[in-house]
Each structure stands twice: as structure tokens, then as C-alpha cells.
From TrEMBL, chain A:
Pathway: Protein modification; protein glycosylation
UniProt protein name: Dolichyl-diphosphooligosaccharide--protein glycosyltransferase subunit STT3
EC number annotated for this UniProt entry: 2.4.99.18
Molecular functions (GO terms): dolichyl-diphosphooligosaccharide-protein glycotransferase activity; metal ion binding
Residue span, STT3/PglB/AglB core domain: 546-596
Keywords: Endoplasmic reticulum, Glycoprotein, Glycosyltransferase, Magnesium, Manganese, Membrane, Metal-binding, Transferase, Transmembrane, Transmembrane helix
Enzyme class label: transferase
Keyword Membrane annotated: yes
TrEMBL record, chain B:
GO biological process: protein N-linked glycosylation via asparagine
Transmembrane spans: 427-450
Name of the protein this chain belongs to: Dolichyl-diphosphooligosaccharide--protein glycosyltransferase subunit WBP1
One CC-aspect GO term: oligosaccharyltransferase complex
Source organism (scientific name): Podospora appendiculata
Length: 752, 464
């Protein structure tokens, strides 16, 4: 690096077109970095769909591509929720699948035949590039100067922050993959519409809001945040016709758009979550009316009029809302919503929501883990918004407040916080850099907008003594202090990149379908039990063999094994899930009729005892018990699965209810045979198991995967001779039937 | 074409060999092959009906019910043996496996020879109780043959058996005057299971006792069973329709009691009907009687203007659907149309978890033939989407089991299957509202565009 070339670079950065070119190049590089950092999983493992929900989305996409849009729209899925079926076309957010379908067909028209799986796998990284661009646009709306440094930094942060990567690595084919882009872009369009008071931008905002509604249930966040922003603006006395135009355009068109999605339907006018938007819409009309009246009548009368009018309207609206809610016209707040206010609500009332780990309250280290440096720059950025508080800055403040709250109560909502953190942090950093990267003192009124940190460090030694000037401008002008601050920031940013890469590579890039472990020599060992077992199901069972498993594995069985399941991750029917929970947690005599009634052919359990895999069914078992207890409190009792001392045990001390439960029996059936007598060990719970393993009468072992993670049992048919399974199995084992003809008690006569 | 071919094949099979629907390989197990002389008429009748009869003794080395995992015989007749056990080739587990593989067994017991242990535990599995000491004798002091058992009263004379319920088909009864002789037999009691049915029950005055122990009188505590609780000939039909029959008295199958002269207590002389009864019992056991066959099942949409596809996999809620099932019954040598007994109905269930419809199937004379009766019913699919089963579950005593399940999905209304909004009168106010708004908007636009603004007020009108 010579001084000459630096000069050339600095002067080149001054031209307007050069700057645009630079921005485009930088944005492209950021998008490239965002995509590249999400490819760890593909490189380490393979191009595979991850986890649970993506498998359903993938299956739905395949259905869409194979059958066309209208078939997809009216899709009745008879391979899930047996025997209820699922009106899948009307109970999903089709945005993700339609997006991939459109890309697939577009590529085919361009004669680029790409497998639909690869499109699905790479959709999330591709959209993360767009999200970075949207963050750039949104942040640029926040800065008044011509400088794009805040926008570019925001784009960079958005591209690589782990809080967003966690839901958008390659293979994580979930609604969030495109929803975060839509969220940020809708916000950008909203700010644009608000700033310009333009119907066009408002309509565009509504359009993307409609796309967002079609893609993710989290659209309610926008539905509540925009009215809130409008409300805060009105309360601050910032009502303007711009606000009126932007809001009314967005609300009217956006609501119409959202009602086109079958899953949403009439919810926007029926449920409480959507009422703020409707209320503010009405409120804006009143405010507009009032401002018209104010221009028409004198001030004093207007005061009285205002108070009477406002009070009356508020009372009428509130009464209307209360009556409509109690009459059942407007649905009361849903359980998921309550759990947002009271984090222990779900644990008490709706175990099915609490049982999902991503619905748990966030632990504080998670904030640092997911956002690192940004989390402490975030308040600074919000503070900077207060400094020049325009309408759009109010938005950032409101968003920051609510985003932080929701991210605090639910882990998965960290995702909605991430964009505002990136924007605010970018504002803070760019403000620091813009301040300290100015090499020259303000004495010559020439703003030097250098892009490169190294430029300042090169020049810092040559000048000095600015402090002594008697100019009224205050600030830090010493090159040393500038250099220290800039160097520190640079190091922080570099550390941030390191952290992001490390987190992405280590925490968020596991497909969780395939497990990886290290061999003693350090080489990677792939544990592929899931796919092994699902492949077995695919090849060895009838095509309509019904598989019963806990709901976590429903989507995977549907996607990988292509077999009907009883319950899956959609969890729309709590009773059906509780039925499976009851079958798993009851004695065989109770479970068997349930399985017969539901035509179950195979039962699949996940057992980690051999490998020390902690996410297995025995560890999830208490949730099954709790959910079943919610429906049948007389038959299933959680208390009975704990020892008198309150311990949850699976060894010899386990309670009778535990030992007799189908889940326990299926998990430990024949497990003893793997060990020398008396040494059977469960490596997850770290306990030694009793010498005699459980016996199964109504099921027979069909398949156990290599590392015993998946165990599949076949449900026996009714006994051909009409015996119950216990005695039939006893006869098979060679036990003689006890003679029950001793003359005790009254004689039992046969009646014909 | 296919049905014609299979019918032809069936015809061929009927003509060529067996008259049983499941095969003609019959094994008779008895102590001494020479003993078969006393059963010559019974066995001769069987051979005459087309069975190829083989004989074995229980201890024989060559005896095996299975060959390469498949049944080596289709039917087995056990005649009384003196041995206590039956040896390694006839363990209860093997006999159960034989039944599970659709083999039929006719077991003849006798009061004079103790029942082998193998059978005791086999019968215990079927919920059939034998008397404790395995050698009890059934006597009746009011219905006995005065000619042959004037002192011991142990040759029972029974009227022709009649079904215990009016909706059960009568397979075993002969003419109303005929008598059955039941000499020196063993009575068993049956458990409450629905797979068990008694063919011949003892008269109300009969009882079972052990002649060796209680020669004088039987106390009520020691009594094994009495009256109609004693089953003299009883039948067990497994879920796979394999049949197992116990005849309490092997002697009644012997030549001596076929067409024998007996004399009732009242003094009348008559000929026994044992030969005919033996034919019917063995015929039922070896699947020559009361075998039902489902020829085909068909269901289709019963609506106008719709492609009328057979057996579609999916229906829509509130569709009109017709279901038909064709049933034949085998009687001795040919398939005939199955007629449901007078007081009974054949029902169709349309069920998901529990039945939404349970409808009687009615015989459709137009489609029925001499060989097959077609039962049909039309109904409307319930307003509930899901995976439903057309289920016919017809299990009756002495008839082989019919359990047919056809799964269909019932989907919801597609988005374009609802009536259009203008077809619903309730929607007219809203439609006219939309029309009024559109018209008003257009009128306003026209007015706005064609009314020239006045010069003065131009500056203070600011709408946007």
C-alpha cells in the first residue's frame, strides 16, 4: 500500500457514480459472505433438509411442484394425523413453497434443471442475501446524511449475525427463511411510505405484508408493530397526513391481501391479535376528522368538543370490544399469546406449547451468543435515534422495545429482534466511525468521508496540535485518540466476524437428522440412525402402514419414510397428541386397544441410552405424560412417574407406572442382551438397569438401528384363538396355563 | 374376464378333486391303524366325499403336520388313543400353529380312554374345560337307550340339535324325529368366548361324573357340570376361520352306532341318525359347509354428471356413495348365493375411529346370480373429512368370518366447489353494496374530472 494508491482510492470514492458502484460491489460481497457462511452444513454433511419442520415444507413443496397450485391449494393430506387427515392446503402458510415452486419453474423455463431439493436447501441462504440488502435499505432511511456506512454495516451485520443464521443455514427450509427478508423489507417500505406520505409506497408495503402473511405466522408482529408506531406518533403529536395516507393504504390493502390466505381467512377481523390494527385504523379516521374540525371551528370550542368526542368514542369502542369479545364474535387471546405475557402460563395450562424447546424463555447468555458485540451497541444505537427523533427513528425505538421484550420471553423470537439490533448497532458503529475516521480537523470546512480505517492510521502520526486552536468546535481531534478508538472498533468487528463464524460452524450447522461425533483419533464419525431407520420403514412396510411415534418425528417420517403418521409437528389437535401420549404412558392392556382403534401398524421410539444421545423419548416422556394427563386426569398421573422421593428414575427403583408404561418397555426391551449379565447401563441417564428387562406382549420388535437410536415395533394382530396377548405370549414362552377351575367362588355359566 | 377365468378355474377345481374349500389332505391319527375298521363307514364317507385319507399313530416317526414350514395336511381327525402324551410331533404349540395356518381339526374324545395331556393344555388355550380327572362320563337317567344301557344309563339319546338362537343357520339338525345316540361320552364346558359354540348340548337332566370315584352319588361340590352347561359336541372357529370340533363320544362315529336300533325310555324304537350327523359335523369342520366367500367389493360415486369410477380412493364430504359386496356360500360341493338368515342383517359400517354410519345391506336381485348374492346400500358420506373405512364385519356362529375393510379418504370441499356468491340470496345485499360503491366511485371520478375548478379557490384546496 503506497500513499499514492491511497490517494487515488480516496479521490475515487468521491465521485457519485463511483460511490454507487462501490456500494453495489460491497453489497454483493456482503451477500456472498452471507450465503457462504450458511453453507457449512452442506460442505460438512451433504445437501439435506434439516430438522423437523423443514421436512414438511419440503414434502409440501414436492406436492406443489408435482400437482400444481390449485391441487396444492385444495390439498387434503391423508397421510398425516391418521385417521383424521389434515386439510393441509388450508392450514399452512404457502409462501415458502410457492416461492420455491416459482423458482423451480423459472429455472426450468430457462432450461436449468435443478432438483427441487437443492432449491429448497439453498433457498434460505439465497434469501439471507436479500435480507442483508433490505437491512441496508432500511438503515439508509434512518440516516440523514448521504453516507451509506450505516446501511452497509447493517447489511453486513444482518448477513452474518448468528441470531439470524440460526434459522437460515442451508437446509433449514423453514418459513423464517424468507419471512425475515419480508419482515425487514416490509418495514423499509412502511418507513418509505410514511416519510413520503405516498400511496404507492403504502400499497407496496401492503403487497409485501401480504407476502409475509402468506409465509409466516409471525406476520402478527408487523400487524401489531405498525399500528403501535402510528399510535405512538399520534400520542407524540406527530399526526400528519403522511401518516394517514401511509397507514390507511397499508391497512386496507394489507388486510384484504392477508384475508386471501385460507389459513388466515377472517382472523384479521375476528381475533384479538389483529384488533390493534383495526383500532388504530378507526382512531386515525377520528384524528383526521378532528384535525379537519380544528381547522373549521375556533380553539376554545374545539377543546370541549375534543374532550367530549374523544371520551365518547373511546368508551363506545371499548364497550364494543368487550361486548364483542364476551359474545364470542372476536376470539379472545390465544394460549400462545398469553404465554408471551406470562412465561409460566403455558407450563401450567398448555403443556403442548411448553414442551417445545424454542418456546422457552430465553436465557441471557443466548443474547450474547446470538448477537455478540451488537447487543451492547444496540442501546447506543437506540440512544442515537433519540438524538434526532424523526418519525422513522420513533419506529426503531418502538421496535427495539417490543422486540427486546418478546425475545426475552421466547427463544425463537430472538429472530424478530435481530433486524432491529443490526440496524441500531450499525447506526451506533457508523456514528463512531464517521466521527473518528475524519482525518482532518473541522477547521477547513471540508468533510472527509474516508472509507478505509487504515487511511487514518497511516496519517495519524503526521499531524497534531489541533487541540490548541481556539475554535469553538469541541471534540477529539488527536490522531492518537482517534487511532485508538478506530483500532478498538476494528478489532471488535473482527472479533465479531470470528465469533459469528465460530457459532455458525459449531452450533447452527448440524442437520440434526445426521449426527456427527468425533472418533478418538479426531476424525469425524457420522451417526446416521435416523435415515437408516426411515429407509427401513420405506422399504419393508406396506405403503399405508401407520406409524405411531411422538409428534416430534411425524414430519420426518412423512418426509423421509413416506408413511402415514398419527401425529406430527403441526400439533393442531391436542387431543390426538394426548391420545398418543396416553398410549405411550399406559400399560400395554390400555395401549393396545388405542393402537387398534387408530389402526397403528408400527410404533417408533427414539432411544439414546446406548449412545448417550440425550434428546430421546425417555427424556421427553414427562411431556407425553403431562399432555395425556391434561385430557385424562383420572387415568394418567404425572405423580406416579416419580418415586416417593420425587425423582424421575428409570433404573430398578423406577415406579410401577414407569416400568409398565409402553414407552419404558419399548425403550429397554432386550437392552439387557447387549451387556454382560447385570451390567446393562443407560448412558444418558447414567444409571444401571435392573437385571431383568421388560417383556412385551402386544408388540414385537421389528427393527433397531445400528446405534439403537431408533427402535421400531410391530403391533401384533389380535390373537387368532381369541386369547388376550398376555396369555398368548405366556403360552409362547412355554408357561402352562394355570387351571382356574378350582371351586372357589360362584360357578361361571355360559349363556347362549 | 378375470372373474370369468377365476370362475372357470374354480369350476375345474370343484370337478377334479376336493369338495372342501381348503384342501383334501386328511390325516387320521389313531392308536393302531387296525382300529380304523370300526370307523370304516365314517372314514369311507369322508373318502367318498373326495378326501385323500392318511393314517398315522401319534408316536410314529414319520408323523409331521408341517413340511418345510407349510402344512402337510389340511385337516386332522384325532380318534381316541390310550397313550398319556402324544409325543413330540403333536405338542400343543404345534397344534396351535396348525390352526393358525388354517388347518382344521376334528377331535373325538371318549370316556373310556383318558384324554392326552397335549389336548388338555390345547383346550385350555381355547377356553374349553375338561373334567378334572379326564375320564368323566355323561349320564342321563331320563334320556338313555334302554336297549344297550339299561343299567348304566350312559348311552344318551338326543333329539336332532337345533341352533340356540333363531338368527343362526341350522347346519346340523336332521329331521325332527331323528335321534342321536351318544354312547359313553365326555362332556366339556365352554368358556364365555365368542369363538366357541356348542353344537350339541346335553339334556337338562344329564350330568357328568367319574365312575371310578363316585359310584354312588355326586355331591354338588364335586359336580363338574350338568344340564345344558355340558357341551357334548362343540365347535371352535378361530379368527382365521380355521375350525376345531370336539366330539365328546368317539363311539358315536363308529359303525356300530351308525343306523343302530335304539329304544327310548318311553319305549319307542328308532334308528339313530348318527351317520348323517357325523357327515354334517365333519363336513362343517373340514370347510365344506358354512364357508363364506367375498367375491368382490365395489363402491362408487352415486351422483349425476360425475365420472363414475369404480373404487376411487377419495371422496368428498356429503357425496352420495353406493357400496356393494358380493357374497357366496359353499355348501357341500358348490358355491351358492349367500342368503342372510331371516332374523339377521348384514351391516356396513362407514367408520373413522367409530362408525359414522351403520347401515343394513340389502340384497340386490338384479345383480345377484345363483352363485353369488350382491348386497348393496347407498348413503351420503358424513360431513367430516378424514380417512374412513367401509367395513363389513360379519361374524356369526358356524359361518366363516367375513371382515372386510376398504379404506377411502374423505376430503373437504375444494375452493371451487362452493356455490357462487350470486347463487346465495343472503349475499345479495353485499353484492349490491359493492356495486353501489363501484358505481359511486366511477360517478365521482367522472364528476371530478369533468367539473372545471373555479379559479379563486384553487390555492387553498389541498387534499393530499
Amino acid at each position: 500500500m503506497t500513499a499514492n494508491s491511497l490517494e487515488a482510492l480516496a479521490s475515487a470514492g468521491k465521485g457519485r457514480s463511483t460511490r454507487t458502484l462501490l456500494r453495489v460491489v460491497i453489497l454483493c460481497l456482503i451477500a456472498g459472505a452471507a450465503i457462504a457462511s450458511r453453507l457449512f452444513s452442506v460442505i460438512r454433511f451433504e445437501s439435506i433438509i434439516h430438522e423437523f419442520d423443514p421436512w414438511f415444507n419440503f414434502r409440501a413443496t414436492k406436492y406443489l411442484v408435482a400437482n400444481g397450485f390449485y391441487k396444492f391449494w385444495d390439498w387434503f393430506d391423508d397421510r398425516t394425523w391418521h385417521p383424521l387427515g389434515r386439510v393441509t392446503g388450508g392450514t399452512l402458510y404457502p409462501g415458502l413453497m410457492v416461492t420455491s415452486g416459482v423458482i423451480y419453474h423459472a429455472l426450468r423455463t430457462l432450461t436449468i434443471p435443478v432438483d427441487i431439493r437443492n432449491i429448497c436447501v439453498l433457498l434460505a441462504p439465497a434469501f439471507s442475501g436479500l435480507t442483508a440488502f433490505a437491512a441496508y435499505l432500511l438503515t439508509n432511511e434512518m440516516t440523514t446524511t448521504d453516507s451509506a456506512s450505516a446501511g452497509l454495516l447493517a447489511a453486513l451485520f444482518m448477513g452474518i449475525t448468528p441470531g439470524y443464521i440460526s434459522r437460515s443455514v442451508a437446509g433449514s427450509y423453514d418459513n423464517e427463511a424468507i419471512a425475515i427478508f419480508l419482515l425487514v423489507f416490509t418495514f423499509y417500505l412502511w418507513i418509505k411510505a410514511l416519510k413520503q406520505g405516498s400511496m404507492l409506497w403504502g400499497a407496496l408495503c401492503a403487497l409485501f405484508y401480504g407476502y409475509m402473511v402468506a409465509s409466516w405466522g409471525g406476520y402478527a408482529f408487523i400487524t401489531c408493530l405498525l399500528p403501535l408506531h402510528a399510535f405512538v406518533l399520534i400520542c407524540m403529536g406527530r399526526y400528519s397526513s403522511r401518516l394517514y395516507v401511509a397507514y390507511c393504504t397499508w391497512y386496507a390493502l394489507g388486510t384484504l391481501a392477508s384475508m386471501q390466505i385460507p389459513f388466515v381467512g377472517f382472523l384479521p377481523v375476528k381475533t384479538s391479535e389483529h384488533m390493534p390494527a383495526l383500532g388504530i385504523f378507526g382512531f386515525l379516521q377520528l384524528v383526521a376528522f378532528l384535525s379537519y374540525v380544528r381547522s373549521a371551528i375556533p380553539g376554545r370550542q374545539y377543546q370541549t368538543f375534543l374532550w367530549l368526542f374523544a371520551g365518547g368514542t373511546f368508551a363506545v369502542a371499548l364497550a364494543g370490544l368487550v361486548i364483542a369479545t364476551s359474545a364470542g364474535i372476536i376470539a379472545p387471546w390465544g394460549g400462545r399469546f398469553y404465554s408471551l405475557w406470562d412465561t409460566s402460563y403455558a407450563k401450567i395450562h398448555i403443556p403442548i406449547i411448553a414442551s417445545v424447546s424454542e418456546h422457552q424463555p430465553t436465557a441471557w447468555p443466548a443474547f450474547f451468543f446470538d448477537l455478540n458485540l451488537l447487543i451492547w451497541l444496540f442501546p447506543a444505537g437506540v440512544y442515537l435515534c433519540f438524538q434526532n427523533l424523526a418519525d422513522e427513528h420513533v419506529f426503531i425505538v418502538v421496535y427495539a422495545l417490543f422486540g427486546s421484550y418478546f425475545a426475552g420471553v421466547m427463544v425463537r423470537l430472538m429472530l424478530t429482534l435481530t433486524p432491529v439490533v443490526c440496524v441500531a448497532a450499525a447506526l451506533a458503529i457508523s456514528s463512531v466511525l464517521d466521527t473518528y475516521l475524519v482525518a482532518k480537523a473541522p477547521a477547513p470546512p471540508q468533510v472527509h468521508n474516508a472509507e478505509d480505517a487504515s487511511e487514518a492510521s497511516v496519517k495519524k502520526a503526521s499531524k497534531g496540535g489541533l487541540k490548541s486552536t481556539s475554535k469553538p468546535v469541541v471534540g477529539v481531534y488527536s490522531y492518537i485518540s482517534k487511532g485508538v478508538v478506530v483500532t478498538a472498533m476494528t478489532i471488535y468487528l473482527l472479533l465479531f466476524v470470528l465469533h459469528c463464524t465460530w457459532v455458525t460452524s459449531n452450533a447452527y450447522s448440524s442437520p440434526s437428522v445426521v449426527l456427527a461425533s468425533k472418533m478418538p483419533d479426531g476424525s469425524q464419525h457420522i451417526i446416521d440412525d435416523y435415515r437408516e431407520a426411515y429407509q427401513w420403514l420405506r422399504q419393508n412396510t406396506r405403503e399405508d402402514a401407520k406409524i405411531m411415534s411422538w409428534w416430534d418425528y411425524g414430519y420426518q417420517i412423512g418426509g423421509m419414510a413416506d408413511r402415514p403418521t398419527l401425529v406430527d409437528n403441526n400439533t393442531w389437535n391436542n387431543t390426538h397428541i394426548a391420545t398418543v401420549g396416553k398410549a405411550m404412558s399406559s400399560r400395554e392392556e390400555v395401549s393396545y386397544p388405542i393402537m387398534r382403534q387408530h389402526e397403528v401398524d408400527y410404533v417408533l421410539v427414539v432411544f439414546g441410552g446406548l449412545l448417550g444421545y440425550s434428546g430421546d423419548d425417555i427424556n421427553k416422556f414427562l411431556w407425553m405424560v403431562r399432555i395425556a394427563e391434561g385430557i385424562w386426569p383420572d387415568e394418567i398421573k404425572e405423580r406416579e412417574f416419580f418415586t416417593p422421593r420425587g425423582e424421575y428414575r428409570v433404573d430398578g427403583e423406577a415406579t410401577e407406572a414407569m416400568k409398565n408404561s409402553l414407552m419404558y418397555k419399548m425403550s429397554y426391551y432386550n437392552y439387557n442382551a447387549l451387556f454382560p449379565p447385570g451390567q446393562a447401563q443407560d448412558r444418558v441417564r447414567g444409571v444401571r438397569l435392573p437385571d431383568v428387562g421388560p417383556t412385551l406382549d402386544t408388540l414385537e420388535e421389528a427393527y433397531t438401528s445400528e446405534n439403537w437410536i431408533i427402535r421400531i415395533y410391530k403391533v401384533k394382530d389380535l390373537d387368532n384363538l381369541g386369547r388376550d396377548h398376555t396369555s398368548a405370549a405366556a403360552f409362547e414362552r412355554g408357561h402352562k396355563k394355570k387351571k382356574a377351575t378350582k371351586k372357589r367362588g360362584p360357578r361361571v355359566l355360559r349363556v347362549e | 374376464m378375470w372373474s370369468f377365468l377365476s370362475f372357470l378355474g374354480l369350476l375345474l377345481v370343484t370337478v377334479v378333486s376336493a369338495i372342501s374349500t381348503t384342501g383334501d389332505r386328511l390325516l387320521v391319527i389313531l392308536d393302531d391303524v387296525a382300529d380304523k375298521a370300526s370307523y370304516s363307514q365314517f372314514l369311507g364317507d369322508l373318502e367318498g366325499r373326495g378326501f385323500t385319507v392318511a393314517f398315522e399313530t401319534p408316536k410314529s416317526e414319520s408323523l409331521s403336520l408341517f413340511r418345510l414350514g407349510e402344512r402337510a395336511y389340511d385337516h386332522v381327525v384325532f380318534l381316541p388313543t390310550n397313550s398319556k402324551g402324544l409325543g413330540p410331533n403333536l405338542t400343543p404349540a404345534l397344534l396351535l400353529q396348525f390352526i393358525n395356518q388354517n388347518g382344521n381339526i376334528l377331535l373325538a374324545l371318549s370316556a373310556s380312554t383318558p384324554t392326552p395331556v397335549s389336548f388338555v393344555s390345547l383346550l385350555a388355550e381355547l377356553d374349553i374345560q375338561l373334567p378334572a380327572d379326564r375320564t368323566a362320563l355323561v349320564v342321563d337317567h331320563f334320556n338313555y337307550d334302554t336297549a344297550s344301557a339299561a343299567d348304566k344309563h350312559d348311552v344318551l339319546l338326543l333329539p336332532a340339535p337345533r341352533p340356540s338362537r333363531s338368527d343362526v343357520k341350522d347346519f346340523f339338525g336332521g329331521s325332527s324325529t331323528s335321534l342321536l345316540a351318544f354312547p359313553r361320552g365326555l362332556g366339556v364346558t365352554l368358556g364365555a368366548g365368542e369363538l366357541l359354540t356348542s353344537i350339541v348340548r346335553a339334556p337338562r337332566t344329564a350330568y357328568s361324573y367319574n365312575p371310578k370315584e363316585a359310584s354312588e352319588a355326586v355331591g354338588s361340590d364335586d359336580l363338574f357340570a350338568a344340564g345344558e352347561q355340558l357341551a357334548l359336541v362343540s365347535a371352535f372357529q378361530a379368527r382365521n376361520s380355521a375350525r376345531f370340533t370336539i366330539v365328546g363320544s368317539a363311539e358315536m362315529l363308529q359303525d356300530a352306532w351308525f343306523d343302530a336300533e335304539v329304544k327310548t325310555v318311553a319305549g319307542a324304537t328308532a334308528k339313530t341318525d348318527n351317520r348323517e350327523f357325523a357327515k354334517r359335523v365333519s363336513g362343517w369342520t373340514f370347510q365344506e359347509l358354512g364357508v363364506l366367500r367375498v367375491n368382490w367389493i365395489e363402491h362408487h360415486l352415486n351422483e349425476e354428471g360425475v365420472a363414475n369410477m369404480s373404487n376411487p380412493e377419495i371422496y368428498r364430504i356429503k357425496n352420495d356413495v353406493t357400496y356393494s359386496i358380493s357374497l357366496s356360500e359353499y355348501a357341500w360341493s358348490s358355491w351358492t348365493a349367500f342368503a342372510v338368515p331371516a332374523n339377521d342383517v348384514l351391516q356396513l359400517e362407514f367408520s373413522m375411529l367409530s362408525p359414522f354410519h351403520r347401515l343394513p345391506l340389502v340384497q340386490d336381485a338384479a345383480q345377484s346370480t345363483a352363485e353369488a348374492a350382491v348386497y348393496t346400500v347407498s348413503f351420503t358420506v358424513p360431513d367430516q373429512h378424514g380417512i374412513f373405512n367401509f367395513k363389513v364385519n360379519y361374524k356369526r356362529p358356524f359361518l366363516s368370518n367375513v371382515e372386510e375393510k376398504n379404506t377411502v379418504s374423505v376430503r373437504h370441499m375444494a375452493h371451487d366447489e362452493w356455490p357462487r356468491s350470486y347463487a346465495i340470496s343472503g349475499a345479495w345485499p353485499w353484492i349490491s353494496g359493492i356495486a353501489a360503491t363501484v358505481a359511486g366511485w366511477l360517478a365521482f371520478c367522472a364528476l371530478w374530472m369533468y367539473s372545471a375548478p373555479t379559479e379563486k379557490k384553487k390555492e387553498n384546496k389541498k387534499t393530499q
